[in-house]
Write a structure and sequence with these properties.
The chain is 60% helix and 14% strand. The protein has 400 residues and is α/β, with parallel strands linked by helices. The strands form 2 sheets. A 3-stranded mixed beta sheet has the order 1-2-3, with helices on one face. A 3-stranded mixed beta sheet has the order 4-5-6, with helices on one face.
């Protein structure tokens, strides 16, 4: 989600408080659906009004850019319906077929809107290109200029309102609706300027402006598609979120370390995660389990993430374990200082000492697993001659 924030004015707060029950309960699926309904209905009303005004102006003035802009508003009505339906579907509770809820329906709705934006941009580009090579006269009146200017203001207001709504509930579909409104405002403003210039200069401003606007609309659609596809595929948790999870875990008594943090999102309001937390192996299982439960409760309360904690035993104040840990650390530092390890423990098999650990490999490190294994064996010393290693290779996706 974008970090742009607007301070709500009286009218916006009035609409939110009037049509949304308990607007602060943004984790509630029912409340989120009400936000989507408010956005959808406001958008339908505004876009239908703008379509009627622009289609009349476009026919009277013989402007392809204005007519294209009018049909862009008509398509926005369909986008508003998608917004409304998407938020309502996303609010449905979990069921047997969908045990994690329907929150990802918001992503699908946003994907449909972004595809519509992209398609409209392509159509506008085609029409505008024809007007460049086959220019026609454009006649625009003062009243047309005024109505188009009002259209820009309305679209900017819609952009602002949808940004406020999307910021309140962290909704990708409302953010897509906001960007759609912004692209419309830029489109109409460009159309307005080109239409005025065409009255004074014999040059195909109308077609050129339409082409420029279409490129902006196409880019907007592609940007939203890229962001939504990342959500659907499953993107990495933000460094800020990883940092907050680490801080919560390490605030718990007896937690020695945390790694392998994984977060899976099922819509903006539903996240499930897991992490491995290290505890002293000499502690009783009952005590460690209680600390792990406390961590899960804290993360749910503070971050609204259903977290599962895996408990890793770590030998503390054991001379052999500490000596081997330091030896392994030196070997890894020689290979590449960006590498790290966790889940370290030792096991004895007859006369052999086996070092068991996970090796975290950042994306920037290009060694193969086979090469890393050979380098570890080559550089490891200080643990005795009969020492072997058992290593699990991890990708370091949860780095801050």
């Amino acid at each position: 989600m974008s970090t742009i924030k607007f301070k709500e004015n009286f009218a916006e707060r009035f609409l939110i408080n009037r049509f949304i029950s308990s607007p602060e309960k943004t984790d509630s699926p029912a409340v989120r659906a009400q936000y989507g309904t408010l956005s959808g209905i406001c958008g339908i009303l505004c876009n239908m009004l703008l379509f009627l005004l622009k289609i009349i102006i476009g026919v009277i003035s013989n402007s392809a850019a204005v007519i294209s802009d009018a049909f862009n508003n008509l398509s926005d009505c369909a986008n508003c319906i998608v917004t409304l339906l998407g938020c309502r579907i996303a609010s449905k509770p979990a069921d047997k077929a969908h045990p994690y809820g329907h929150g990802r329906a918001e992503y699908l709705a946003a994907l449909i809107i972004s595809a519509a934006i992209f398609t409209m941009g392509l159509i506008l580009f085609k029409n505008s290109a024809e007007r460049i090579f086959f220019a026609q006269s454009v006649n625009i009146s003062v009243i047309s200029v005024i109505i188009l200017a009002i259209s820009v203001i309305i679209k900017l207001m819609m952009y602002r309102f949808n940004r406020i709504l999307s910021g309140r509930i962290s909704s990708s579909v409302l953010l897509a609706a906001a960007k759609d409104s912004l692209s419309d405002a830029v489109s109409t403003l460009t159309v307005l300027i080109s239409a005025v210039l065409s009255n004074f200069i014999d040059f195909p401003f109308d077609g050129i402006a339409g082409a420029a606007v279409s490129v902006f609309i196409i880019k907007t659609g592609l940007d939203i598609i890229r962001a939504i596809v990342d959500e659907l595929i499953g993107k990495a948790a933000s460094p800020e979120l990883i940092h907050r999870i680490r801080a919560i875990v390490m605030s718990e008594q007896r937690a020695l370390g945390v790694h392998d943090i994984m977060i899976h999102t099922y819509g903006p309001a539903k996240s499930i995660g897991s992490c491995h937390v290290e505890f002293d192996s000499s502690d009783s299982f009952a005590e460690v389990h209680e600390h792990a439960d406390n961590i899960e409760r804290k993360i749910k309360q503070i971050l609204n993430i259903d977290m599962s904690v895996h408990m890793d035993p770590v030998a503390v104040n054991d001379a052999l374990t500490e000596r081997c840990r330091l030896s392994l650390g030196r070997a890894i530092e020689k290979i590449d200082g960006r590498l790290s390890f966790h889940d370290f423990r030792i096991a004895s098999h007859g006369q052999k000492t086996v070092l068991i650990f996970d090796l975290c490999i950042p994306e920037e490190v290009k060694y193969t697993e086979k090469e890393l294994y050979s380098l570890l064996v080559e550089n490891l010393d200080g643990c005795g001659e009969n020492t072997e290693i058992s290593v699990t290779f991890d990708k370091a996706f949860d780095e801050e």
